[in-house]
UniProtKB/TrEMBL annotation:
UniProt keyword list: Oxidoreductase
Pfam families, per the entry: adh_short
Record bears the keyword Oxidoreductase: yes
Entry-linked Gene3D superfamilies: NAD(P)-binding Rossmann-like Domain
Any one Gene Ontology molecular-function term assigned to this protein's record: oxidoreductase activity
Oxidoreductase listed as a keyword: yes
Lineage: Bacteria, Pseudomonadati, Pseudomonadota, Alphaproteobacteria, Sphingomonadales
Protein name: NAD(P)-dependent dehydrogenase (Short-subunit alcohol dehydrogenase family)
Family annotation (InterPro entries): KR_dom, NAD(P)-bd_dom_sf, Peroxisomal_Beta-Oxidation, Sc_DH/Rdtase_CS, SDR_fam
Superkingdom to which the source organism belongs: Bacteria
PROSITE patterns associated with the record: ADH_SHORT
Domain Ketoreductase: 8-185
Similarity comment text for this entry: Belongs to the short-chain dehydrogenases/reductases (SDR) family.
Length: 290
């Protein structure tokens, strides 16, 4: 049965084009009322997406606000009413090698991606808790999960969002708030100069949005990182291996043993996906006490 979001209200940030636009269109097609957000200078693009949704018979409004502006975000959420779904999609790029990057360029990317998502999430969090329902998606990236040259600021922000998601999902569980992350591979205004034309043709943002829709459904998972692009969907995990014990070794000797046994320590066949950060300590205590 197709996913239905009838009766749900969704905010999609950075939705004037690219991934945000295709996310908004698909959410509306699934029946959600969509608030199409973008920065004030892109309000015409956001309104164009709103018009697309309305022309197709859906319900939408547009709201110009930077995700870093707490007052504007609060106003957007107040006008939206009961927000059931938040898609934190807004972002920017300021790519340079770390040697050439200024701290201001680092901070700006962190502010938009990380703090923008925090600000928007904080604005909807209490209402979701009160209604015992919420679906939130953070937009992470392979650059955060695995690294990418020239993107220390972007990668740091995107991996920080995974940590944000992991803990929010734990805190929101008792109120039926499910929090996930999506790592897209798609051509967008941010990436059009980074990929060759042939790849760009295969990486339409519309091929990512079905994964987004799955993550905001009533039956959505939580604490899940989906990767999607070119009509492929994968799942990324933050794992912990069984590792080794260095009990009883001198500290200098222990460091040498760790280096010698790195392959054994990193053996993925023993890896698990911890349910919370507490499990790392439990694994280590188990070896120490065993």
């Amino acid at each position: 049965m197709p996913v239905s979001l009838a009766g749900r209200t969704a905010i999609v940030t950075g939705a004037g084009g690219g991934l945000g636009r295709t996310h908004a269109l698909l959410l509306a097609r699934a029946g959600a009322t969509v608030i199409v957000n973008d920065v004030p200078q892109n309000i015409a693009q956001a309104e164009a997406v709103m018009d697309e949704i309305r022309s197709a018979g859906g319900q939408a409004s547009a709201f110009g606000a930077s995700v870093t502006n707490e007052d504007a975000v609060a106003e957007m959420v107040a006008k939206a009413g009961a927000v059931d779904i938040l898609v934190n999609n807004a972002g920017i790029l300021r790519d340079k090698s770390f040697a050439k990057m200024t701290l201001d360029e680092f901070r700006l990317v962190m502010d938009v991606h990380l703090m923008g998502s925090v600000i928007c999430t904080k604005a909807v969090w209490d209402g979701m808790r009160e209604r015992n329902y919420g679906r939130i998606v953070m937009t992470t990236s392979s650059s955060g999960l695995y690294g990418n040259f020239g993107q220390t600021n972007y990668g740091a922000a995107k991996m920080a969002l995974v940590g944000f998601m992991q803990t929010l999902a734990i805190e929101g569980a008792k109120n039926n708030i499910r929090v996930n992350a999506l790592a897209p591979t798609a051509r967008t205004a941010m990436t059009e100069n980074l990929l060759p034309p042939q790849a760009l043709e295969l990486l339409g943002p519309e091929y990512v949005s079905p994964a987004l829709l799955a993550l905001v459904d009533e039956e959505a998972p939580t604490r899940t990182i989906l990767a999607a692009g070119a009509q492929g969907v994968e799942q990324a995990h933050i794992t912990l291996t069984k590792g080794i014990s260095i009990k009883g070794l001198d500290d200098l000797e222990a460091a040498s043993v760790i280096l010698q046994r790195l392959d054994e320590i990193g053996e993925l066949s023993t890896a698990t996906v911890p349910a919370s950060g507490m499990e790392q300590g439990q694994v280590e205590l188990g070896k120490a006490l065993g």
